[in-house]
Fold this sequence. Notes:
Layout: E1 8-15, H1 20-35, E2 40-46, E3 56-64, H2 67-74, H3 77-89, E4 93-100, H4 142-154, H5 159-169, H6 173-179, H7 189-205, H8 208-211, H9 224-254, E5 261-263, E6 274-276, E7 297-299, H10 306-311, H11 314-338, H12 340-358, H13 366-397, H14 402-427, H15 431-462
Antiparallel strand pairs: 1-3, 1-4, 2-3, 5-6, 6-7
Amino acid sequence: MSNVTGPLYEANFVIENDVLADADLWLADVVQRALSTDGVVDARVFGSDTDAQGKGIRTCQIQTRDDAAFDEHVDNLFAEIDAEAAQQFAANVVIQSRVMRSDDLDELATNESLLCLNCGTRLRGQYCGRCGQRSRSRLISTWQLLREAFGDLLELDSRLWKTLIPLLSKPGQLTKDYLEGRRARYMPPFRTYLVLSIVFFLVAFFEPKEGLLLLAEDKSVATAEETHEQEQEAKALASDKQAEVDETLKETYAKGKIDKNIVGDSSANNTSFNINFGEDNDNDNDNDFFGDCEKAKISDEQNAPDWLKKRFTEERAKKICERNKARGVDSFQAAIIDNIPIALIVLLPLMAMVLKVLYPLSRRYFVEHLLFFVHFHTFFFAILIVLLLFDRLVNRLSVNGMISTLMIIAASLYVPVYLYKAMRYVYAQSHLVTVPKYLILLAAYLTGAIITLLGVVLIVVLSA
Length: 464
């Protein structure tokens, strides 16, 4: 149709197959007569579909020059079309008509566009019907930027809060709703997982009070003598602690346990080996956790596999030991904690595969089982955030610490119960069937968690 603002008359014809050929000829004649009529700027017939009963469907559109021409033809041309159809085809043709008008070009303000600035779609309201962007092109204020950045956290009716409530209180509800198509009301699963994981690590490893100490003036200026006394006390305390650690390590080694070695496989054929990152020394230094690096090597090298001996030489073992020793225990522990999110992400597909094996007849795809554990890990992060915040609140209020202990015990009991109830709700099987599967899944989860955490430790050691 031509790009004008005049009204458009549209008539839809549902035609029986017996008279379909005659009706097509008649509609072609209607178009020709409409085009030759004063006040009509365009006319056409299109459509070759059929409805569920096999009847033909045709659409005739006639566009007039303006409202005045339209009003004139309502009683003339359009009325004649309806009358001719009833006379020639009777009940074999059913007509449904409507009137459509183009948007008024004067409705939009001068600073607004007729087309969506994001995707270029024709606008027919305040929001684009294709991408959802608002039609206005006004400048964004600072307040608007803050609302967009923290809207999901600060607005009580946001999707984040609507997601957290069922996540914490209704095991399996989010997973089942998502699989059944009820998704718009909740925040997407992986986005929720990332948001809560980031919030958890911010809460766990950032203390606002410590961060603000740099902005405060240090009013406790100690004298040289006081400083010397404090240093001596700190050294004595560190020496006592190191002595306790050394004594514990010696007792551990006496029992045959190895803390500083990566141990290989052992069997009846005496094929055991271990990678020794250094032996003990008597220095009272926290950085000596890896021992004497000159003695770092592969013990029982003849039993180690060839690929390991080629890639893990004695020289490389010494370098790894020296690098880990140089960065200290605190840095070593911090590196392990930093890699825990990666371990949890690696654990997700492994546990999804276990669910796939446990529910072979569920007709669910692998990604659906993966979604189950994404929600479970998200719930786990949420529980940890609640516990950390509650513990800090108790410490600030100087309340009895037993309350925090009771909260931890309650959460420890709730997490496995949550997992069981989620399995029951999502997979809808009886207690008799779910209990053994739950025990298998729990054992697999604990095993997978231990393996992934050991993998993190190994990566941290070798990447130093």
